[in-house]
């Protein structure tokens, strides 16, 4: 039996990377899938439709509250309800702290944190209305727990997502809505392709990871399926590191 059979899942920022891998993983477990994506990613959406039958793909800027409201509304119109929500959309542009501009800082906060707040709130309102509980997953990062000299504008947003999931777990538990965070380590995505193209840096990172390799986007699908399914029905306010052991390796 598929773990998510009959469930409706919504994932933001799912045209590429981690969000795409989670969407495909959920679909393989029987869920109906709705995603948000940015204008200009139409080719990625067309290829995703070849893997996910009856995919609902809604474009929009997730930093805008109306984008989330529209995403949830259209999902309900097509599939009838929302059972699982994954706040995944995010950006990460490396920059020296003293050179971070107001525009870069505000864009990063608006997309990563404000967008996660609005989207989580919209999904939670729908889940409360349905009265059947639900699962909300925030894609945070190992960066929520450690510092990053070129990520001073980014790491606070990921810490914010972790905190958001902890607080919404408290706020929404009375409605049977579970809220948990995924904390990916170094995962090869379009966000860090340029950075990981440096052979020396990639080798250094791989050497620090006990499992000996960088993460793949598909590595996030299994933990996300666990948190979305009834296997984790008594798990809320939790965080799952998906980092190959990087965080605990202090050597």
Automatic annotation (TrEMBL):
The GO molecular function terms of this record are:
oxidoreductase activity, acting on the CH-OH group of donors, NAD or NADP as acceptor; quinone binding
Q: Name one Pfam family in it.
A: adh_short_C2
Q: Which domain of life is it from?
A: Eukaryota
Task: Give GO BP annotations, semicolon-separated.
Answer: fatty acid biosynthetic process; rhamnose catabolic process
| CDD domains xrefs | SDR_c
**Entry keyword DNA-binding:** no
Keywords, alphabetical: NADP, Oxidoreductase, Rhamnose metabolism
Which InterPro entries does the protein's record reference? NAD(P)-bd_dom_sf (IPR036291), SDR_fam (IPR002347)
Q: Does the keyword DNA damage apply?
A: no
Q: Which protein family is it in?
A: Belongs to the short-chain dehydrogenases/reductases (SDR) family.
Would you tell me the protein name for this molecule?
Short chain dehydrogenase, putative
Organism field: Wickerhamomyces ciferrii (strain ATCC 14091 / BCRC 22168 / CBS 111 / JCM 3599 / NBRC 0793 / NRRL Y-1031 F-60-10) (Yeast)
């Amino acid at each position: 039996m598929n773990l998510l059979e009959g469930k409706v899942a919504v994932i933001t920022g799912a045209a590429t990377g981690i969000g795409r891998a989670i969407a495909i993983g959920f679909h393989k477990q029987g869920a109906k899938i709705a995603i948000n994506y940015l204008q200009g990613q139409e080719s990625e959406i067309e290829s995703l439709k070849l893997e996910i039958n009856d995919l609902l793909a809604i474009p929009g800027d997730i930093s805008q509250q109306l984008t989330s409201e529209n995403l949830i509304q259209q999902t309900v119109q097509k599939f009838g309800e929302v059972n699982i929500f994954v706040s995944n959309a995010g950006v990460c542009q490396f920059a020296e702290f003293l050179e971070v501009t107001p525009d870069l800082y505000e864009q990063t906060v608006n997309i990563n944190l404000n967008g996660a707040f609005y989207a989580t709130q919209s999904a939670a309102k729908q889940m409360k209305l349905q009265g059947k509980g639900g699962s909300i997953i925030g894609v945070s990062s190992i960066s929520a727990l450690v510092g990053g000299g070129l990520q001073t504008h980014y790491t606070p947003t990921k810490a914010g997502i972790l905190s958001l999931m902890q607080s919404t777990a408290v706020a929404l538990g009375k409605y049977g809505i579970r809220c948990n965070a995924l904390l990916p380590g170094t995962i090869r995505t379009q966000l860090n392709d340029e950075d990981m193209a440096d052979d020396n840096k990639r080798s250094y990172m791989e050497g620090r990871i006990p499992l000996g390799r960088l993460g793949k986007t598909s590595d996030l699908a299994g933990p996300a399926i666990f948190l979305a399914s009834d296997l984790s029905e008594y798990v809320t306010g939790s965080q799952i590191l998906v980092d190959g052991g990087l965080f605990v390796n202090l050597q």
